[in-house]
Design brief:
- The chain is α/β, with parallel strands linked by helices.
- 32% of the residues lie in helices and 22% in strands.
- The protein has four helices and five strands; from the N terminus they run βαβαβαβαβ.
- Strands 2-1-3-4-5 form a five-stranded parallel sheet, covered by helices on one side.
- The longest helix has 13 residues, at 60-72.
- It is globular and about 40 Å long.
Length: 116
């Protein structure tokens, strides 16, 4: 399973490993900035997309809006799972309201059932 994370402050792979997620099962890519995010999503073609709400220069919320629009126009395929990850549950709820499949406090990410 391919996983793409847009996160600027924390090493998400290290966070998952510290939570006992077996990363050998996943192809994992992290981008520390959201510059050219649609091109990166197209290139990686992830099964799971992890979006930090407060990601610079384009917030995860706005990345998801643009992704949804690109999918509607037939320009790209939507990842199977889009997961909002923020330290603020209100930010996750905003992303859920526009189509994220799940929203989780960032440090609880290893508890998601998708890693099993």
């Amino acid at each position: 399973m391919k996983v793409l994370a847009f996160e600027d402050g924390y090493d998400i792979k290290a966070l998952l490993v510290s939570g006992s997620v077996d990363m050998a099962k996943f192809e994992f890519v992290q981008h520390w900035t959201s510059v050219n995010f649609l091109d990166i999503i197209k290139q990686v073609s992830p099964d799971v997309l992890l979006l930090d709400h407060f990601m610079p220069p384009t917030r995860g919320y706005d990345v998801l809006v643009a992704l949804n629009d690109a999918v509607k126009r037939g320009e790209m395929k939507r990842p199977n799972k889009v997961i909002a990850m923020s330290s603020d549950q209100r930010a996750n709820n905003k992303m859920l309201s526009i189509g994220a499949d799940d929203g989780i406090i960032k440090f609880d990410l290893p508890t998601l059932p998708i890693w099993k």
